[in-house]
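ok trying again, last paste got cut off:
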Amino acid sequence: AGILAGYGSQWDYLGQYGRGPIFAVQVPLGVEFLPRAERFGIYGEIVPAIEISPAAWGFISGDIGGRFYF
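nice, full thing came through this time. structure:
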């Protein structure tokens, strides 16, 4: 079969999109399936976030995909 791993971390987001500087905090949470004896993984994650500056508001993004390990 394989390994089903969970992961999570905190990411600080700093950017600029035509309306001044933006600061937000994201907390990605996800799972990754790593088949035994294979060099790839399949993952999915959900990323709740809150923008702190210039205005406070929340948003959610997510990803699905695969990784090839060299």
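cool. The mean pLDDT is 76. Strands lie at 2-8, 11-16, 21-26, 29-35, 40-53, 57-68.
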